[in-house]
Amino acid sequence: MDAVVKTLNPSSTQAVNARPTREEAEAAVRTLIAWAGDDPAREGLLETPARVTKAYEELFEGYRLDPAEALSKVFREVEGYDDLVLVKDIPFHSHCEHHMVPFHGVAHIAYYPENGVVGLSKLARVVEIFARRLQTQETMTAQIVQAIEEALRPRGVAVVIEAEHMCMSMRGIRKSGASTSTCQFTGVFRDDPAEQVRFFTLLNSRRA
């Protein structure tokens, strides 16, 4: 099958190859099994290529989902509420784009509404969409901020992600339990140190 190149959008210079067929994906899994040193034809591995391909459809479904759509319903009538909204400890699982090994952790999101709010579950949905792609933690942090900025135009956004990377725990330096934190601020969170202090104070407060 000849490769077909498609641009992601008319204004983008980035291109991707046409998606391989399921049969090609399963053949690639069999190749990796053989390269690892096992026999893809033995009984315990016969169905593995099909299972892996099916699992990948779920693990990387974020490529087929649009974060803008998840944030499209904005509630304007909030009785004049314009103070901080914080959703913390949003769990996620993702895969490192460098080794395709999992990393997992929690995301914390806060924003100051300007023209309305979104359902709290929609913020968790945005995290899930970006997590279910090949990622770096730094890029994922910035993507979540950008999606909220574009959808809500709030007075400020704060995102913190804390995660453990299996590429550090399972391979390489093998330091299990090491945690990585990333953060990005916009608007009032970026410009006013007092707002950052307030955000982290609320973030670190004990649950009742």
Could you give the topology of this structure?
Layout: E1 5-7, E2 15-17, H1 22-36, H2 48-59, H3 67-70, E3 85-96, E4 102-112, H4 120-131, E5 134-135, H5 137-152, E6 156-165, H6 166-169, E7 180-185, H7 187-191, H8 193-204
Parallel strand pairs: 3-5
Antiparallel strand pairs: 1-2, 3-4, 4-6, 6-7
Question: Which features characterize this protein?
Answer:
alpha+beta, GTP Cyclohydrolase I, Chain A, domain 1, 208 residues, two-stranded antiparallel ribbon, 38% helix, 23% strand, disordered N terminus, five-stranded mixed beta sheet
Strand content: 15-25%
User: What is the arithmetic mean of pLDDT?
Assistant: 90
- The CATH class of the largest domain, by name, is Alpha Beta
Measured on Cα atoms, how large is the radius of gyration? 20 Å
Q: Could you please say which CATH topology of the largest domain applies here?
A: GTP Cyclohydrolase I, domain 2
Instruction: Outline the low-pLDDT stretches.
Output: 1-15
The order of strands across the largest sheet is 5-3-4-6-7
State the end-to-end CA separation.
59 Å
In total, how many domains does the architecture comprise? 2
CATH architecture of the largest domain: 2-Layer Sandwich
Overall geometric form: elongated
Using DSSP, what is the number of strands?
7
- What is the H level of CATH, i.e. the homologous superfamily of the largest domain? GTP cyclohydrolase I, C-terminal domain/NADPH-dependent 7-cyano-7-deazaguanine reductase, N-terminal domain
Major β-sheet, in short?
Answer: 5 strands, mixed
Binned, the helix content reads 25-40%
Order of helices and strands: EEHHHEEHEHEHEHH
